[in-house]
Amino acid sequence: MVMADTDYWRDLTRFESHDYVGRWYRQRHARSLSAGRTREIISCFTQGREYFFSAKQSATAVKPLLLYYGVLALSRGLVLLLDSRKTEASLKPSHGIEIVDWQGTLSRGLENMLEVGFRTTNGTFSELARATRNKQQMSWWNLPSLAEGIFHANYATPSFLTDESIVTLDDLLSRDTRFLSLYRETTGRSDKSHLGEIVATPTGLEIYIFALGISKSDVETRFGFPTGTVVQDRPSARRLSLPSWFVHLPGTDLNALKPLIPATQYIGGDGMFIFEDFPNGDRFSELLRTFLIAYVLGMLVRYFPSKWMALLRNEKGDTAQPLLLAAMTSVERDWAKLISSALA
Predict the structure, then answer these.
(1) Which of 114, 125, 159, 253 is 20 to 30 A away from residue 13, measured at CA?
(2) Distance between CA 83 and CA 74 in Å, rounded?
C-alpha cells in the first residue's frame, strides 16, 4: 500500500517529541541525548515542517525558497540524528553549495536556465552526504524464482564534495525518473535515465539496459562499470521485444557486487531505471539529488527573482518552465518521504 504524503509528515512529527527522540537515539547509538541536544533536533524538525506548511499556502513566486529552507532545516535535523558527533554548534552554517556564474549564464537568456551550475563548499550538503552515506533503495530479481529482492546500498562518497567539479541543473533533471518524458519533451534532449533490469544469479549479476540510440562504447563509459567489463547486445529473457545491452558482473558474493551496480531507482512493479553517471563519475541518492534541486530552485527565487518571474510569466525562452514547476512539486511531495526513508 502506497503511503500518502500526509502519512510521511505524520511519521516525522514523532521527531518533535522529546521522549521519542531520546528513545530513537538510544536505540541507534547506544547512548543518551542531553535535554539540550534533544531540543536542537526537535527544533529542526518543527522548523522544517513549518516551512513546508508555509510553502503549501504560498504563491509560486516564493514557494521554492520556502521549500528549500524546509529542506535545509530537516537535513540538519537528520544529520544531528544520524551523526552522534554533531551538535547544533558544530554544524556548518553554510548551505555547502555555491552558485557558479549564474549572472553570466542567465544573461544569455531564459533558455539557458537549465545550464546554471554549482559546486560544493564545506557545509550542510557535505554533512548530509556523509551522514546518510549516499544510501539508495535498489532491487533485483532473484533466479530461479524471479522473486523480487529490495535492499539499500550505499554509493561511494561523491567526488563532488572535494574535487571542485561543477554540476548543472540539467545534469540533475536529466537523471531523475520523476520527469522522464517531460524532460525530453521540454528540452528536446535525450535523458540520462534508462529502463533497466538486474537479475541476481549464483554466478553474479546480470544487468540489462534498455536504451535506443546508445552504443556499446556509451554503455562502457557512461555507467561506471569496472574497466574490462564485457558489454553485449543481448535481449532480456523477460523482455524479448525490447533491445537491450547486457552486462555480467561475475562473483558469488552478491553483497560485494552491490557497489559496482550503476545508480538505479526502483519505482515499483517492473519499473527500474538505471542512470548514467554524472560527468565526473559520481552517483547521487535520490535524497541528495532532491536536496540539490531544492537548492537551485530556491536560489533562483532568492537571488534572481526577475528571471524566475519571467519564467512564470511565459516570456521568451520559457521552454523549461513545465520542467521546473514539476521539479518544485517533486520537492514538496517527496521530501518527507525521503527523510523518513533515511531514518528507517
Answers:
(1) 125
(2) 14
- Nearest-angstrom CA–CA distance, 60 and 174: 23
pLDDT in tens, 167-199: 999 999 999 999 989 999 999 999 999 999 999
The answer to whether 132 and 289 are in contact (CB under 8 A) is: no
C-alpha cell at 139: 532491487
β-pairing, 245-250 with 231-233?
A: antiparallel
- What is the tens place of the pLDDT at every residue in 65-123? 999 999 999 999 999 999 999 999 999 999 999 999 999 999 999 999 999 999 999 99
Angle, alpha carbons 226-286-337 (nearest 5°): 145
Neighbours of 119 (CB within 10 A): 15
Residues 6+ apart with CB under 8 A from 104: none
5-15 residue pLDDT tens: 779 999 999 99
In this predicted structure, what is the pLDDT of residue 266?
80
How far is it, in rounded angstroms, from Cα 265 to Cα 178? 10
All cell numbers assigned to 205:
549479476
44 neighbors 76 (Cβ within 8 angstroms): yes
Q: Which amino acid makes up residue 213?
A: G
- Convert the pLDDT of each residue in 225-241 to its tens digit: 998 899 999 988 878 78
Confidence (pTM): 0.94
Strands (E), the chain: 97-100, 117-120, 135-142, 147-154, 167-168, 193-201, 204-210, 231-233, 245-250, 264-268, 271-275
Q: What's the pLDDT score for residue 148? A: 82
* 8 A C-beta contact, residue 58 and residue 67: no
Residues ≥6 apart with Cβ < 8 Å to 79: 86, 91, 124, 127, 128, 131
Q: Classify residue 269 as exposed, middle or buried by CB count within 10 Å of its CB (0-12, 13-18, 19+).
A: exposed
Q: Is the peptide bond before 144 cis (omega within 30 degrees of 0)?
A: yes
User: What would the DSSP string read from start to end of 288-330?
Assistant: HHHHHHHHHHHHHHHH-HHHHHHHHTT-TT-TTHHHHHHHHHH
Q: Rounded to an integer, what is the distance from CA 231 to the centroid of its chain?
A: 27
C-alpha cell at 307: 528571471
* Phi, psi for 139 (deg, rounded to 5): -155, 160
